[in-house]
Model the fold of this input.
Amino acid sequence: MAAVTGKKVSARDRARQAIAGGLAHELAAQEEAERARLAERERVSRARETATTAYFEAEDRRDALVAELAALDLDRAGAIKELDTLGLKTDTIATVLSITETEIRRLRKLSPTTPETAPVDGAAHNENNNPEQ
Done:
């Protein structure tokens, strides 16, 4: 710079210029680091949202399957009750269906009717079991 203007730049001015240049580089580096931190924070936030969304979508599918299994268990319980009304004993039902007696007892608890009140022919009856009413 001194050669262009013909004036000699003082040591103090050169020091100020060096400091200003160094501060500019330092400021640029800090800004770049801050941009990198913000970009990483945004990446983590998106990844967290994606993972959380995937979890809740899977949970919704699981809930649907659990509800479907519950409905199937009610169907199985109805079949067990029907076999009960035919007079089959628990051990016989277990053998015929290839399930445990514990599973039969669990399914019986799911059914709203008991073997004593279950219709023999599977048809609905009125309170007095009189089909003419």
Residues 115-133 have pLDDT under 50 and may be disordered. The helical segments are 2-5, 11-85, 90-97, 101-110.
